[in-house]
Amino acid sequence: MTFSESRPLPATRRPVEPKSEGEDGIHDLIGVGFGPSNLAIAIALAGMGDVGVSTHFIEKQQSFVWHGGMLLPGSDMQISFLKDLALPRDPSSPFTFLAYLHEKGRLMDFINQKTFFPSRLEFNDYLRWAARRFDACVSYGEEVVALEPEVSGGTVDVVRVVSRGVDGRSKVRRARNVALATGGTPRVPELFAPFRSVPRIFHSAAYLSNIDTFGFDTHPAPRIAVVGAAQSAAEIFLDLSARFPNGHVDMIVRGHALRPSDDTPFVNEIFNPDFTDFIFHQSEPRRRALIADFKSTNYSVVDADLIARIYSLLYQQKVSGEERHQVRRLTQVTRVAEAEGGIVLDLSIGPEGTEGRAVYDAVVLATGYARDSGRALLAGLEPYVTVGAVGRDYRLATAPGFRPSVFIQGTNESTHGLSDTLLSVLATRGQEIADAVLAARSASGASVAPVRRQMGRA
Q1: Which family does it belong to (predicted)?
Q2: Are 286 and 261 in contact (CB under 8 A)?
Q3: Average pLDDT of the chain?
Q4: Which end of the chain, N or C, is surrounded by fewer C-beta atoms within 10 Å?
């Protein structure tokens, strides 16, 4: 028998309802994208009390979902639940993961698990729970296609945010500040680029929405390749091995071995918010050296327990004599072709580059993401903003006479450190941007209620 709270108790402090538009029809802030980054800003503003800031967020997905293509059964977070959207700066916030558990009636059950790492499915549910509080100021199913300056008397006070809905109709909203958080674009290696329209070659970002569409569950022994050597590739490799026990799954890895991520305590301090200050104020060569030194925390690495599970799987296959799955190390794809009934990969194998060939029913590209600072959108604001010139508060440098602030999130690794693309600093970064928006509103002469700044270390 499972004992749990019979019903959640009411929250002790409720956030202020967001205002979706100012009295003049101009938003103080429009967020482009409504994933965890802009959600963290919304939460920070809600926690400030009724300061009269009007916000709106535009999200191209039909509803809030965080990495929906990789919400695999059994996959856990790689970050502590304590680094949620609010707790590092305000442990009493009603938007913490603990508040979510309490409201759902699972707090004691979660505690009994004795873990800092919830499942990815549960953390996505937490994010959706928080996002629903802002439904009144979010437009889902719209994609922002342009940012345009509204020039008056030689100055720009407002940015026009142009979006397009699924029906093809455009809509224009006006904002005094814009926060870009568009996430990464799936990176497709050059050899695979001509095959983007081939259904059985797809990126890991769309893994769950694709893998069940091919009828492999009735296939006697599907052959599937996973290209990549990082966490997503490892998770997919194990998922495919369980999903199709009679199949043949290859993980194609350029290196000699799967490398473990370094999540030891001293190294993990690079994800603390105060490390952002430290790295930002270093010289550019020093920043590059620091980021290169700590690459093993985030790139082309796999959790050690996942590596152990893969090794155990391969070992048990050796014991049984049925080696259906393999990690093909020191292997690179040199050519891709379609053949009747399959995808043909030409391979360079081993240190000598021995030529090989394999035919697969499907190929999953676990090859990461590209982040371009929203250059396509920012092109409409030339020559007012300088792409790549980002301040400590995530604000782009702007020309004289351009009064709006444009904040960039998730693409500032080279200036703000490895945590910029991760969840670790979201609570603090959201507060910093919220403070900047509030300061800009105050500077414009609008009345602003006093704010108690609550910042903390993750």
Answers
A1: Belongs to the lysine N(6)-hydroxylase/L-ornithine N(5)-oxygenase family.
A2: no
A3: 90
A4: N
